[in-house]
């Protein structure tokens, strides 16, 4: 299972390449921890967000590697979204391009 530092570094690299997202997003990885994105700033503290995405660390890694389709993960309950779905789709697209 990937660790939080590794996943955070990968998300940070993606945010920097894509000039960040327009609004804050929180990735809730359960017991593994949190990844908060706001623009190109990425950290592990909970902060305000317009979208909270809950998924396992393994599924985040699979999503970034292109081995998990975000839409199918959402439909099967492997990924849950609270808040702005458009923002979740923007993040999923950016992570896939990583």
Automatic annotation (TrEMBL):
* Source taxon at top rank: Bacteria
Organism from which the protein derives: Lichenicoccus roseus
Q: Which residues form the SCP2 domain?
A: 4-95
Signal peptide range equals none
What's this protein's name?
Answer: SCP2 sterol-binding domain-containing protein
Q: InterPro entries this protein is in?
A: SCP2_sterol-bd_dom, SCP2_sterol-bd_dom_sf
